[in-house]
């Protein structure tokens, strides 16, 4: 059983890469954390949650805030939400509901959503998110250290 995972969710398109970029940037800041990068996992997220005590999910979200704005959502908030803020069709809230039904939820889970801008095919991160990445990584590392099981 893994004690803690940081799971970066995303896709190779534009700002939707932020979950991957932020999770990868956490590797040197969070020694001992298992870092996993998933491409629009849908129900596959359930498998990535299994066998761990604490999870920090990092994903791009559409919130209406400025790109790079960090949002913290606790597990209870996500399970109560009918509309997922995720930029994926079968979103994080859907996968967490399925994981709960299957008894696969970790004891501690936080979603760190980062507001994204454009999701252009073939484009990398926008300059706004590139500039924010070091600050986001520091804030996410602090969030990781606050998880009870880490």
SSE map:
Layout: E1 2-10, H1 18-26, E2 34-39, H2 45-49, E3 52-61, E4 70-74, H3 75-80, H4 92-102, E5 108-115, H5 127-146
Parallel strand pairs: 1-2, 1-3, 3-5
Antiparallel strand pairs: 4-5
| Category from helices, strands and their pairing | alpha/beta
Average pLDDT rating: 85
What portion of residues is helical?
Answer: 25-40%
Order of helices and strands: EHEHEEHHEH
Largest sheet: 5 strands, mixed
Could you give the distance between the termini?
13 Å
Which strand-content bin applies to the residues?
25-35%
Number of helices: 5
Strand arrangement, major sheet: 2-1-3-5-4
Rounded to an integer in angstroms, the radius of gyration calculated over CA atoms is 14 Å
Q: Number of DSSP strands?
A: 5
Unreliable segments of 5+ consecutive residues = 84-88
Label the overall shape. Answer: globular
Report on the architecture of this protein.
The chain is of the alpha/beta class and 150 residues long. It is 34% helix and 25% strand. It contains five helices and five strands. A five-stranded mixed beta sheet has the order 2-1-3-5-4. Helix 1 crosses helix 5. The longest helix has 20 residues. The radius of gyration is 14 Å and the shape is globular.
């Amino acid at each position: 059983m893994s004690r803690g995972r940081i799971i970066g969710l995303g896709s190779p398109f534009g700002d939707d890469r932020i979950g991957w970029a932020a999770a990868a940037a956490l590797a040197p800041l969070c020694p001992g954390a298992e870092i996993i990068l998933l491409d629009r996992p849908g129900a596959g997220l359930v498998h990535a949650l299994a066998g761990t005590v604490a999870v920090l999910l990092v994903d791009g979200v559409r919130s209406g805030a400025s790109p790079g704005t960090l949002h913290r959502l606790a597990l209870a908030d996500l399970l109560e939400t009918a509309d997922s803020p995720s930029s994926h069709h079968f979103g994080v809230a859907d996968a967490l509901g399925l994981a709960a039904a299957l008894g696969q939820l970790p004891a501690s889970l936080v979603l760190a959503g980062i507001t994204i801008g454009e999701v252009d095919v073939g484009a990398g991160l926008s300059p706004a998110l590139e500039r924010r990445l070091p600050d986001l990584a520091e804030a996410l590392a602090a969030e990781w250290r606050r998880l009870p099981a880490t």
